[in-house]
Design goal:
Radius of gyration: 19 Å
CATH topology: Methylamine Dehydrogenase, Chain H
CATH class: Mainly Beta
Number of strands: 34
Shape: globular
Low-confidence stretches: 1-20, 22-67, 69-93
Helix content: under 10%
Structural class: mainly beta
Number of helices: 0
Number of domains: 1
Mean pLDDT: 81
Strand order of the largest sheet: 1-4-29-28-27-26
Length: 388
């Protein structure tokens, strides 16, 4: 069902606590994110109108004419049943597996998409949050903000085969598609760790200086350029991989968290959790080219079917925008506190991790509807690359 934004409806207030880091709050940075402490306890989000998009900031594109597409999850026994997806098998396209960092459950769950069931739960202590996959998609690297390190998971054997301790607050993570190097953002600092895969797992090779509280990470397809969202610095670091030096720092919106690259690596998009918008950055020119308004507390961005999809933590929606015009197209109702989001490689499905009600939502990017649901473990985060 389609309805115009602005239609009044019953207010809903979530009672679910945020994970850590909950990048949407402006509270003291006492945990590995905003508004949380190391236990993950934070105040619940404010009440929202389920039929009203938040008012945009002054000077940003108005949201009043966009469509909201209904897709609320069905609640059974106090838990929402939702869906995840990946590579194309049928219509809608599904992945063989999705890898879910269940932060409160201290596990990484492997979900078979054909049966829509968890086939393996791998214990990963330390509140697993960020995830990235090796170029051959056979290894998962998982950050542990409370465990202060990275776990290396053999996805064929379905077990943790190694672990590397790191100082600070390891959170955002990315993998170089050419060299296989692993980059881990230190949320508490101004650096990204450079890790080299080896027979024993991972070895620390060095650090790259960035802005304050680096979070989202992306690497260009040619492996030559690393981009890092610096939350506290309101900026993006553009890094030359060969020299491991920041070559430019681009000002964006307030508190950028998630960072996503276009398929050709020419444009980066940051989810700015405080200014409630997305910044577009021309990577070669090293400058911001525009912004598009979102719902409340945007978190991560995915690109599919010529559109951008942004998880809005406080609005319990996914904002859809046109990357070419930076105009808002729609808002899709999903689960409670959506965070991680990714598109399948064929671009036919978008998967959303809903931290607040333990599940993932599957979106058809053409019809902009939620097409399925599957239950997950406690506190799904999936901040990064989690489909294979």
């Amino acid at each position: 069902m389609l309805r115009r934004a602005g239609v009044s409806s019953m207010l809903q207030t979530t009672r679910r606590l945020f994970p850590l880091p909950s990048a949407g709050e402006g509270g003291p940075r006492s945990g590995s994110g905003e508004g949380s402490d190391l236990s993950g306890s934070v105040p619940p989000s404010p009440a929202r109108s389920a039929g009203t998009l938040p008012r945009p900031k002054s000077g940003l594109p108005a949201l009043g004419g966009c469509l909201r597409i209904s897709g609320r999850p069905e609640i059974r026994g106090g838990r929402a049943l939702l869906v995840l997806a990946g590579f194309v098998l049928s219509s809608p396209a599904l992945a063989q597996e999705a890898l879910v960092t269940a932060q409160l459950g201290n596990a990484v769950e492997i979900v078979d998409l054909a049966s829509k069931k968890i086939v393996q739960s791998i214990p990963v202590p330390g509140a697993p949050a960020g995830i990235a996959l090796s170029p051959d998609r056979k290894t998962a690297y998982v950050t542990r903000p409370e465990g202060h390190g990275v776990s290396v998971i053999d996805l064929d054997a379905r077990r943790v085969r190694a672990s590397l301790d790191l100082p600070g607050g390891p959170l955002g993570i990315g993998v170089n598609p050419k060299s296989g190097e692993v980059y881990v953002a230190d949320w508490y600092g101004t650096r990204v760790f450079v890790l080299r895969p080896d027979a024993d797992g991972l070895a620390l090779e060095g650090e790259i200086a960035t802005g304050q509280s680096p979070s989202g990470i992306a690497v260009t397809p040619d492996g030559a350029t690393l981009l890092v969202a610096n939350r506290e610095s309101d900026s993006v670091s553009i890094v030359d991989v060969a020299s491991r030096r920041e070559t430019r720092r681009v000002a964006v919106g307030q508190h950028p968290f998630g960072l996503t690259l276009s398929a050709d690596g020419a444009t980066a998009y940051t989810a700015n959790v405080v200014s409630n918008d997305v910044s577009a950055v021309n990577v070669a020119a090293g400058r911001e080219t525009g912004r598009v308004a979102t719902g409340q507390r945007p978190y991560v961005i995915a690109l599919a079917a010529g559109k951008g999809f942004v998880t809005d933590q406080y609005s319990n929606t996914v904002t859809v925008f046109d990357p070419a015009t930076l105009k808002t197209l729609a808002a899709i109702d999903v689960g409670d506190h959506p965070e991680g989001i990714a598109a399948t490689r064929d671009g036919k499905t978008v998967v959303v991790a809903n931290w607040g009600d333990n599940g993932l939502s599957l979106i058809d990017p053409s019809s902009l509807t939620v097409t399925g649901k599957v239950e997950t473990g406690d506190g799904p985060r999936s901040f990064g690359d989690f489909l294979r």
